[in-house]
Design brief:
Structural class: mainly beta
Number of strands: 10
Strand order of the largest sheet: 1-2-3-4-5-10-9
Order of helices and strands: HEEEEEEEEEE
Number of helices: 1
Strand content: over 45%
Distance between the termini: 21 Å
């Protein structure tokens, strides 16, 4: 549904009420065109879960989809603050601007999807995130 809307930076919120309160925030970041002419669609995903609404835990992922809206895989970044800010000029943009981190990292997916990415925080410090490819069935 989010991919079909094709609205960049629009946030969608889904809530599942069960014994565990679950909320899912999805944000479509945009498309990246590869050198082969394929399209990769990038989405931020934040899931909140917990038995009590005030004690939810959050998990954050960057999902990548093919032009056929098929999930290719994802980077688990853990923190909401570690999610990319968007897609600009065919690059995935991570831009930190707070008292802890203040660097910008541009990730190219034009040639291929990197198995790991290094996101700069400050000077030469940062985080490494691994790409988890989805099983093809």
């Amino acid at each position: 549904m989010v991919l079909n809307q094709n609205e960049k930076k629009k946030k969608f919120v889904f809530e599942i009420k069960d014994s565990i309160v679950t909320k899912l925030n999805i944000e479509y970041l945009g498309n990246i065109i590869t050198l082969k002419g394929d399209t990769i669609k990038a989405i931020n995903s934040i899931s909140f879960s917990g038995e009590l609404k005030d004690s939810n835990k959050a998990n954050a992922n960057v999902f990548l989809y093919s032009n056929m809206n098929k999930k290719v895989g994802y980077y688990y970044v853990g923190s909401i603050n570690s999610l990319p800010n968007g897609v600009e000029n065919n690059l995935l943009v991570f831009e930190y601007n707070d008292e802890i981190c203040n660097k910008k990292t541009l990730i190219s997916l034009k040639d291929s999807i990197p198995s790991k990415i290094f996101i700069l925080c400050k000077e030469d410090q940062g985080d490494i995130y691994l790409f988890k490819k989805c099983d093809e069935k």
